[in-house]
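Exercise 7. Given the encoded structure of a 161-residue chain, write a plausible sequence.
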């Protein structure tokens, strides 16, 4: 079994090796960008391309660094940009709708919990009361209590699924 410290060392060396290889590749690619390219035909009639011509019959090719962009390409790019913008707007709308739905669900859950707690308290209380304008308690009559419990049940039905 390989100790954990050696695994970390191997992992760090692998990352270093990948960085060196990628850097070397980029430098080679950069060197090819400015290189001259030749075309020649061998004795068998096969066309070859390379950086160094083997004979004097090679023709130097001119390579443009950047291809020209036509009107059709520009239109395609504009359509693509519009499409990407529409996709981004749709993604944002979906995210906003999901956020709104999550907030609504949280609100329903909170109100459900409060309605259940109120119904529980109403059903188990020996008497229900309200306060008058002076702060005195006024006990509910029987029909007022029944109406309050019915209202609490309706709230539970409304908020709880």
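Solution.
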């Amino acid at each position: 079994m390989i100790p954990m410290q050696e695994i970390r060392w191997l992992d760090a060396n692998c990352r270093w090796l990948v960085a060196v290889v990628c850097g070397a590749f980029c430098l080679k690619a950069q060197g090819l960008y400015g290189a001259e390219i030749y075309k020649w035909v061998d004795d068998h009639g096969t066309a070859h391309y390379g950086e160094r011509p083997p004979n004097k019959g090679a023709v130097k090719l001119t390579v443009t660094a950047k291809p020209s962009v036509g009107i059709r390409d520009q239109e395609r790019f504009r359509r693509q940009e519009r499409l990407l913008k529409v996709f981004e707007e749709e993604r944002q709308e979906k995210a906003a709708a999901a956020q709104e739905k999550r907030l609504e669900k949280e609100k329903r859950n909170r109100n459900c919990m409060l309605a259940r707690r109120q119904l529980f308290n109403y059903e188990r209380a020996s008497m229900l009361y309200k306060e008058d304008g002076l702060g005195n308690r006024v006990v509910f009559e029987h029909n007022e209590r029944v109406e309050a419990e019915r209202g609490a049940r309706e709230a539970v039905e409304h908020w709880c699924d």
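Remark. The radius of gyration is 39 Å. Students should compare their own answers with the one above.
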